């Protein structure tokens, strides 16, 4: 989809739906929804006129991993993702793991969350 903040709501909705299908709690679903929003906020400043926003989801019985990325990213290796920003701190607090990547102009943030085993 276009790399525009207007389309981030689509990613949040898909994330929430997938998490609900994996029986995540309401709080965990909200954490994932906000985490995807923050990941997108970190990526969108690096877009070009031809950039596309995309997401890849990988789910297990008790987990969900989301990779949010933009194509044709305008970024140097020294300026990938600001890991000192408020958005990064929120993202790191909400997800179990967070990783960034830059390969062939594709800038990505991958986050994962595992469902609390005590809520089954």
Please outline what is shown here.
This protein has 120 residues and is of the alpha+beta class. The protein is built from 3 helices and 4 strands.
Task: Please characterize this protein's 3D structure.
The protein is 34% helix and 26% strand. With 120 residues, the chain is an alpha+beta fold. Strands 1-2-4-3 form a four-stranded antiparallel beta sheet, covered by helices on one side. The longest helix has 18 residues, at 26-43. It is globular. The model has no long low-confidence stretch (mean pLDDT 91). It has a single domain (5-119), classed as Heat Shock Protein 90, CATH 3.30.565. The protein contains three helices and four strands. Helix 1 packs antiparallel against helix 2 (26-43) and helix 2 packs antiparallel against helix 3 (86-94). The termini are far apart. It has helices at 8-21, 26-43, 86-94; strands spanning 53-59, 63-70, 97-103, 106-114.
Rg computed from alpha carbons, rounded to a whole number of angstroms: 14 Å
Secondary structural class: alpha+beta
Strand order, largest beta sheet: 1-2-4-3
Q: Uncertain spans, ≥5 residues at pLDDT below 50?
A: none
Q: At the third CATH level, what is the topology name?
A: Heat Shock Protein 90
Question: Biggest sheet: strands, sense, closure?
Answer: 4 strands, antiparallel
The percentage of residues in β strands lies in 25-35%
Descriptors for this entry?
120 residues, alpha+beta
List the helices and strands and how they pair.
Layout: H1 8-21, H2 26-43, E1 53-59, E2 63-70, H3 86-94, E3 97-103, E4 106-114
Antiparallel strand pairs: 1-2, 2-4, 3-4
Helix pairs in contact: 1-2, 2-3
């Amino acid at each position: 989809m276009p790399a525009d903040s207007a389309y981030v709501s689509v990613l949040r909705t898909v994330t929430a739906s997938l998490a609900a299908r994996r029986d995540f709690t309401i709080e965990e679903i909200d954490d994932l929804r906000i985490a995807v929003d923050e990941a997108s906020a970190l990526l969108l400043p690096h877009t070009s006129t031809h950039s596309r926003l995309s997401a890849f989801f990988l789910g297990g019985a008790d987990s969900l991993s989301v990779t949010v990325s933009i194509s044709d990213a305008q970024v140097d290796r020294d300026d990938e993702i600001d890991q000192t920003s408020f958005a990064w701190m929120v993202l790191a607090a909400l997800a179990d793991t967070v990783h960034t990547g830059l390969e062939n102009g594709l800038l990505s943030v991958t986050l994962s969350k595992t469902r609390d085993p005590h809520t089954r």
